[in-house]
Amino acid sequence: MKIRVVTMGRHYHETEGLPEFLELPEQASLDDAIDRLGELLSPGASFPGSCLIAVSGKHVGTIASHSAVSLGDGDELMLLAPVAGG
To answer: Predicted confidence band at 31 (pLDDT cuts at 50, 70, 90)?
Structure first.
């Protein structure tokens, strides 16, 4: 199956090499997708635990604590690293 990957927010420069679309086996889970994306990051880079996750527009938690979600062909996985400032 193929899912679309969108990354935004802080540390966006570390995700520049990630593909816009990710091929995964049928029956893949959110954890499978996160693990695969982590393998594709630059050496030493990782997603912050506070990074928010949405699957096809539905918020499912953070990298550190998220719901178990099964992915389907055509889903969109959005990773949003919170930005602080004033």
So the answer is: very high
